[in-house]
Structure formats: C-alpha cells, structure tokens
Amino acid sequence: MHRGYKISIVIPCYNEQEGVQHVIRSLPPSVDEIVVVDNNSTDRTAEVAAAMGAKVVSEKRKGYGAAYKAGLPAATGDITVTMDGDGSYPTDQIEEVIDYLADNDLDFVSASRFPLQNPEAMTFTNKIGNMILTVSMLLLFGKSIRDSQSGMWVYRTRIYPLLTLTSDGMPLSEEIKIEAIRSTKIRFGECHIKYHQRIGDVKLEKWRDGFRNLLFLLKKRFQ
C-alpha cells in the first residue's frame, strides 16, 4: 500500500517475456496487485508473469485496447496504474504520480513523457506523430495536454465505470483521456515522467496506427 491506498498495476503484453520480467522485478514494494494481460502471446509471457506472482488475464482478441478492456476491470486496488510490458515507463515514479494525484485531489492523472529526458527513447517520426495527434486532440476537444498518447495512467479505480471505452486498438490510449477529461465527475491532471528505451521488438506500426488514431479522434468528436 501507499498512503493508505491499495495499488494495482495493469500491464498489457504481447510477446513481452523479457520486458515484463524486468517491469515486475522493478515494481516498488507498495504495489499490492499485478495484473498482466496476455494478448495471445506466442512466447512465455504468461508463464513468466504468473511465476512472478502476477494475476494473468487472457485476451485472445489482439489489440492494445482489447487487452486493456480485459485487464482494467480485473484490478481490485483503490488506485489503478497502467504501464507497458516493455520497460519504457518508470516503475520508480509510480509512488510519485500517486502522490501527485492525492495531493491535488485528482481522480485521473496522465503521465506525460514530454519533454523527453532521453531523446533516444523515441524516434523522430514517433515524436512528430505524437505532436500531430496531441494538437488534433486540442483542436477537436478543446483540451490542451502535453502527451495524448502516453500509456501510463494513474486513476482511482472507482471511476472506471464512468469511462466508455470503445477502441480495441491503439486509440484507446487517447480515448481514455478524452473520457476522463469530458466527464463532469472526474478531476483530470497531468504530470511529467521519465521515459526509457523499450526492451524487445517494437510492436507499433507507426504509420498505420497513427492514421487510425487520427481517424478515431474525428469519429469520437463527431459521433
């Protein structure tokens, strides 16, 4: 526990047996529950996670959003924290972000990777794509945030039923922020974190996923 809160970590994984091992091993002792979503992996991701004490949720439908929609409801802590299974998000800042949420009386905090402390942690094209999507989110929804595509969120678990999540793919990352921002019952904030180079092979198909994210923003805005 941290500050009296039971802490759950949710990690979606597709073939991340090396990365998820690193992530779980580096979690602070205050983490009470680890939920790993095995998104139809063909390696030993599920076996490794289970051996390290994680609750493994299986989701056969491939997709970042599908994995999260299977894993987030399984969290039983007071606070839910998300991060990728590739070691790119800072486990050593989990308590810091929870402190930010608690000290500012927030319900949902999105962890911003920008400005990057390690410029090599993200390719130039990914930086440009992220900037385009973040500006598009501002123009379409009128909310300025620094990192619309961040995959590290910290929120009070009780607000999850207030979020209507429809995407089974990468757009879920921006959708969950939009849902939190637009809700009159959720207090939204953003704080800065470090970002690291990933462990293992890149799964993101940047051009395809970038266009899908942009189209999703348009669809979400004008539905």
Structural commentary:
The protein is of the alpha/beta class. It has a single domain (7-222), classed as Spore Coat Polysaccharide Biosynthesis Protein SpsA, Chain A. 36% of the residues lie in helices and 17% in strands. It is built from 7 helices and 7 strands, in the order E-H-E-H-E-H-E-H-E-H-E-H-E-H. The chain has helices at 17-26, 45-51, 64-71, 94-103, 124-141, 172-182, 206-222; strands at 7-13, 31-38, 55-58, 79-82, 108-112, 153-156, 188-192. A 7-stranded mixed sheet has the order 3-2-1-4-6-5-7, sandwiched between helices. Strand 2, helix 2 and strand 3 (55-58) form a beta-alpha-beta unit. Helix 1 runs parallel beside helix 2 and helix 5 (124-141) runs parallel beside helix 7 (206-222). The longest helix is centred in the middle third of the chain and has 18 residues, at 124-141. The radius of gyration is 16 Å and the shape is globular. The N and C termini lie far apart (40 Å).
SSE layout and pairings?
Layout (H helix, E strand, L loop, with lengths): L6 E7 L3 H10 L4 E8 L6 H7 L3 E4 L5 H8 L7 E4 L11 H10 L4 E5 L11 H18 L11 E4 L15 H11 L5 E5 L13 H17 L1
Parallel strand pairs: 1-2, 1-4, 2-3, 5-7
Antiparallel strand pairs: 4-6, 5-6
Helix pairs in contact: 1-2, 5-7
